[in-house]
Amino acid sequence: MQLLAMLITLSGTILVTTLWKQLLKLVLVGAVLVFCFGLYNIVVVMTR
Fold first, then answer.
1. What are phi and psi of 25, to 5 degrees?
2. CA distances (Å), origin 13, targets 1, 20, 39, 47
3. Which pLDDT belongs to residue 20?
4. Over the stretch 5-35, which tens digit does the pLDDT of each residue have?
5. How far, in Å, CA of 26 to CA of 1, rounded?
6. What is the DSSP string of 1-48?
7. Position 1 pLDDT exceeds 90
8. Which parts pass through the membrane (predicted)?
9. What does the alpha-carbon distance between residue 19 and residue 33 come to, in Å, rounded to a whole number?
10. Which of 12, 15, 24, 46 is the most exposed, fewest CB within 10 Å of its CB?
11. Where are the beta strands (DSSP E) in 1-48?
12. Per-residue pLDDT at 42
């Protein structure tokens, strides 16, 4: 029973870590996209 609980905890931790990493990647990509979009808009406004 103890082994089962340990396995469940371990797999849960791995799952959470993997999801967290995926989420972090998404957030980073989103931030970069927003930053590039903002920069592009500033350039467009400046060159008008």
1. -60, -45
2. 18, 10, 38, 51
3. 94
4. 999 999 999 999 999 999 999 999 999 999 9
5. 37
6. -HHHHHHHHHHHHHHHHHHHHHHHHHHHHHHHHHHHHHHHHHHHHHT-
7. no
8. 26-46
9. 21
10. 46
11. none
12. 95
One-letter amino acid for residue 13 of the chain: T
CA distances (Å), origin 22, targets 1, 15, 18, 27, 42: 32, 11, 6, 9, 30
Tokens of 11: 């797999």
- The whole-model pTM stands at 0.58
Query: How long is the chain?
Result: 48
User: Letter for the amino acid at 36?
Assistant: C
C-alpha 17/C-alpha 13 separation (Å) is 6
Retrieve residue 36's tokens.
């590039």
Strand, coil or helix: 48: coil
Amino acid at 24: L
